[in-house]
Amino acid sequence: MRHLLSTRDLGRDRIIELLDIAEDMADVSQREVKKLPTLRGKTVVNLFFEDSTRTRISFEAAAKRLSADVINFSAKGSSVSKGESLKDTAQTLAAIGADGVVIRHPASGAPQVLAASGWIDAGIINAGDGTHEHPTQALLDAFTIRRRIHGAASRGKGLDGVRVTIVGDVLHSRVARSNLWLLPTLGAEVTFVAPPTLLPADTTGWPATFGFDLDEAIDSGPDVVMMLRIQAERMSAAFFPNSREYSRAWGLDDARFSRLRPDSIVMHPGPMNRGLEISSAAADSVNSTVLEQVANGVSVRMAALYLLLSGDREDS
User: Fold this and answer.
1) To 5 degrees, how large is the angle CA 222–CA 223–CA 229?
2) Nearest CA to 227 among 161, 276, 281?
3) Of the N and C termini of the chain, which has fewer Cβ atoms inside 10 Å?
């Protein structure tokens, strides 16, 4: 695998291969010594132009468990704050011998530009670009769902027939866009539920259905309900009257949670706004996979780094 930029580029076989490798990485995480020598001598740079906790720490843990050397780069306090361009930053990383670059950037398409530029001959992983995509988040979501549904028999399986309802700020969510392409490729049926103002105006070609009534979606009995964070930092206008009205119409409160099937899965990519898009009862229940998603993220990112940096990297 040359780069990991978008879930739209991944076929079913490649996704299942990656998830199966993540299962092996999860087994390693249960050992007393949680390290493999696979990427010894490789250098991975976490290039984060946006604030992050879960994703950056997860990638750092993944790289270190594979014995890679890790360099953490933050735009704050770096030459980027003095006006340095992405090109100059990339050439600096090339000069120090970076083998892999994990990039989070506020501009949609920045990882694709970096991968196609020729400025650096390193494997590029998109850790979130603007409102475009966040591939490893969708992969860890799929990994978590597959484990919950298939348990120990997960290897080699997809998500055929699994009904996933994704609720909230779809317009600004790169997690939603990555899941949009990845989950149907694995056979899942995806439904988006949101206020009309928080759905994209053009959804032509999207392999999903759309609705505006969360109660109707809950009563249809979905296998998975994934709540999205309201991304106020990306909003330049009023997309709903106020947080109280949003929570009343589109929040997974205690009453809606109680109407879910006993085996329904409740997910959230984090960070959560408790009391706004999800109640504490739902977030802390046995149905919730929020902490599992964080733990599984390390295994999935280990698998991605392994495929990217071990052996020959072919074009994809």
Assistant:
1) 80
2) 276
3) C
In CATH terms, the fold of domain 7-134+294-309 is Rossmann fold (3.40.50)
Binding site for L-aspartate, by residue number, is: 82, 174, 229
* First vs last C-alpha separation in the chain: 6
The model carries a pTM of: 0.94
CB half-sphere exposure, 85, CA atoms < 13 A: 6
Rounding to the nearest 10 degrees, give the CA dihedral for residues 144, 108, 315, 301. Answer: -30
Q: Over pLDDT 70: what percentage of the chain?
A: 93
Domain-wise residue ranges, the chain: 7-134+294-309, 135-289
Q: Which fold would CATH assign to domain 135-289?
A: Rossmann fold (3.40.50)
Residues of the binding site: 54-55, 82, 104, 134, 137, 174, 229, 270-271
Longest dimension (CA), the chain: 57
